[in-house]
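Observation: inputs received (chain + iron/sulfur cluster).
Thought: call the complex predictor directly.
Action: predict_structure
Action Input:
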Amino acid sequence: MSRVFLISSNTMTEPYPAYPLGMAIVASALSSRGHKVAQFDFLAEAQSHTRLQGAIQKFKPDYVGISLRNIDSADSFTAEKVWALASDREITKTIKANTGAPVVLGGPAFSIMPEEILGYVGADYGIVGAGGVQFSDLIDRLNQGQEAPPISRGNDVSHSNDVSLRPLWNKKLTKYYTKHNGVVGLQTKRGCPHNCVYCTYPYLDGDSYIRKEPGLVADDIEQLTKDHQITSIFFTDSVFNDAEDGYLTIAEEILRRDIKVEWTAFFRPDRIEGRDMELMKRSGLYAVEAGTDAAHDVTLAGLNKSFSFDDVVHFNGTCCDMEIPCVHYIMFGGPGETEKTIREGLDNLTRLKNCVIFGFSGIRILPGAGIHKMAIEEGFVKEGAPLLESIFYFSPEIEPSRMNETIENAFKKERSWIFPPSAGQEMQKVMHRFGFHGPIWHKLVSFKKPRVRY
Ligand code: SF4
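Observation:
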């Protein structure tokens, strides 16, 4: 049995603070193998190195794990300012000054650029992809005096083992995230069968869905509602509405058990039946986050999205018919963007009635994603150039500052269109001061019938 001290290093609170689910899953895997685990959330501990130092000295770990959630904000206006790796490096220095325990990195941000981040942060080992079972295996190996490679990589077995684990929730943390307008996430499946040109997720977490039993998902929800008084959940699946309709079995199970919870998730804005939306609404769906990504068929194709803008309009209409607020995230400046597609795309957005739209400028280039190859071919970045510090892709057919001005002028005419995303964060802070809790973008949508004047 080893003593393992886990740290969630994420301090980003935009668009909302997110419960460190990855750390809870790793804690669950380690505990189930008999290890003694402590969970330390750097955000909830006021980002204090003094508290971190005290906690490590008290716990006396044999191993320390750090979960890295974000490299930066992925928003070209703020990415440089909120670069997270410098803080991860400082956390590692504090750990090393207080214990000789090996430091193991993991989490979604680490998995994108493992070699570079391990070197920059100065840790001993790293785990790519699903971390729970892999971390336990690494400890077994090291405890038996065996050699271990500096970086371990997940496979289908580790993904499927991790997906069925029950997260080890921490009461102090569920209270913290409830109090600070945060979200508590749950995963019903891992992996993604799609192949969007800017994304590395299928490569890291598998290119097909690996599902959790609906009954286990419902057990997790019941535990959160009963033991932690959580009333609202975010399903963090890459895409909630899978083509095989597995998502509907989750909604059915919530209804069958009569669990009182509201929930939201990321949706693919594909054709969806009204009766399916209605079923989800009855089970607690209160808002939909749509990965629309582009505003024009040309740029949708450029991102390798296999739906059209007509599909998006249909999806949005179904949400409106069911009176479920929908937010669309749109990235301008991607492959295929021209002045014409920007103009026509902004016109297209007016077809999306009664919804919220967040506009982004440029696309963060990540190694291994199709857009990285494209950027090299177009001479935008050099092959082998470092990508730890953010570089954003812009179509060679547009001039970014002119594009931003055009978007800003169009977006300021609509109350529920937000550009740049930081404008939404300011609005969110104001609404929280007025007593609104949790993610509040959906409050911008109203389905009340307009008053008729006689
Ligand atoms: S962006 Fe979403 S839908 Fe597209 S490949 Fe990545 S995870 Fe899948």
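Thought: report the result.
Final Answer: The chain has two domains: 3-160, 183-444. The chain is about 40% helix and 15% strand.
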